[in-house]
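Model: Ready when you are.
Researcher: Fold this.
Model:
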Amino acid sequence: MSTDKSFCAYRMALRASKGSGIPYLGIHTQDLVSLAEANKDFRPDGTVHWDKYRLMGETIMSIMKFKHPGYKIDPDLPLLLSIADCPVLSEDELYKKSILVEPKVNTNPNSRLKELWLRLK
């Protein structure tokens, strides 16, 4: 999953999807934490900062829409056993494997300019 533009591709796919799904909770948790930290609970005049809570509610609702309807899937015993036999990896091992599968994208604009400049030489 690309992190470009704050997971823009994921967010677009999420909005376009219908029915059940499994959202990536890490992104939504990050959104909620950012909203909580970036916005005060109260405005300077002492009133509640309702926009903060509205945005937090919209974030939660974007996750909750995947709760219903549920999936109607019959259990597949060989698949369940295969999943149960998977090794439990540490966070570092998972990170290394994720880089192998999907290398980091260099989003530094200066490196892109440098790359173009070197091509011209």
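Researcher: Now this one.
Model:
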Amino acid sequence: LCRNAGRIVTIDQLCEAAWGENPFGYENSLMAHIRRIREKIEENPSKPVSLITVKGLGYKLILEGK
């Protein structure tokens, strides 16, 4: 996500980066990890402003000053 800050990274791309060539079935694990990241970086993880869900596509990391 950091390497692609400001861009949408698909769920498939994130799963493949984390679990390798056959990432199918890891979507729930990915969502749990995203939640944990939000708990660490967001002031209010339930209303994220830095790690945004782009419905139907994936996630987008917004860094300060970008």
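Researcher: Key takeaway?
Model: Residues 27-41 form the longest helix (15 residues).
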